[in-house]
Amino acid sequence: MPDPTPAEVTTPDPAPEAVPMLEPEEEPTPPQPSRRRGRRPIVVAVIVLLIGAGAARVVLAARVTHQYAAVCVDLRTQQRVRIDRCTPTGQNAYEHWYIQAGNHVPAIGQPPQSGGTGTPTGRNVRITEDFAAEGGVFEPKN
Length: 142
Hints:
Shape: rod-shaped
Order of helices and strands: HEEEEEE
Strand content: 15-25%
Number of strands: 6
Helix content: 10-25%
Distance between the termini: 116 Å
Oligomer: single chain
Largest sheet: 4 strands, mixed
Radius of gyration: 45 Å
Structural class: alpha+beta
């Protein structure tokens, strides 16, 4: 058999490619935020608030730098008496006597060794009136 000439050469038609079946188009759904992502800012905010509250408490405690025990003293005898003898107006023979923390507070019937009648002033002052009748060293409270 003679060789075919180029005009006689026929190439087979390529097989048609399979056309995929198209599904009906669905609208793409937008990505849903995860529940964890939505909770994260809330958790962070709560943690920040808790830390802030603790820091504020420490700062407030640090600001109280001068603490005093207030006792009532009979100005005639210079001895400590019951606290209810002192009136808010101070118009009698009894007056509040302020003793700074770390000092001895006298027992009822004893004279004070430190302090005075001048009311402590300032932003960082705490005054305590509930000191024991037996007296003792006034320890600062936090």
